[in-house]
Amino acid sequence: QLVAYEVKRMRAEEGNKQKILRHIKELAEKLYKNENPYPAVTMHKVQKPTEGCHLRLHQKPFPRLDEGTVQWIIDQATAKLQTAPPAVKAEKKCMVPSGPPIAAIRERNGNALANSARRLEVVRNCISYIFENKMLEAKKLFPAVLRAMKGRAARHCLTQELNLHVQQNRAVLDHQQFDFIIRMMNCCLQDCTAMDEHGIAAALLPLVTAFCRKLSPGVTQFAYSCVQEHV
């Protein structure tokens, strides 16, 4: 029904947070009513006797119950139950028109996918420039790469690309390369969420123990020394 009737309304609401929230609340109420068609039945609570009440004097004896009256009350309740409507409401079947073609929805998703692909391409290109020592080109792309790190796909791409360079025995970097790679790793870890802990962060662990730079003969600094403060 949303696809059939509400597409125009949703498009009109784009950019207006109050209208969108009102629309979501309406939907939520409909869904809630659908799941909970009947109000909760109130239960009659029987009060418990107070502590020490059995020690009191002048206690009235519990009245003898009249069997006929009890049976009459039970019969009344049974009769009411038999005439009551069924507990589950009968489903009303209705035809919903197909609505607008899906091409319009695909178009919007297509744009998002294209943007995502462009970001990943920027990350790959920047890493290639760093390892090819094309630092001017890398510097131009660097701000865009750091922005891209907000997305999970870009963070995953970074770990994959760096892993390829480790496999090619290109883990020993010069100072400028080391600086660029460390900044990327820090930015990647900064934007990681708890969901990424066993994915992105775990994939970076072997990389931070592989990438290094020579500070002086016999002194090597590994990448983990610069990124180990992250939770």
Automatic annotation (TrEMBL):
Pfam families: SBF2. Residues 99-231 form the SBF1/SBF2 domain. InterPro entries: SBF1/SBF2. It comes from the Eukaryota. This is MTMR5 protein. It comes from Scopus umbretta (Hammerkop).
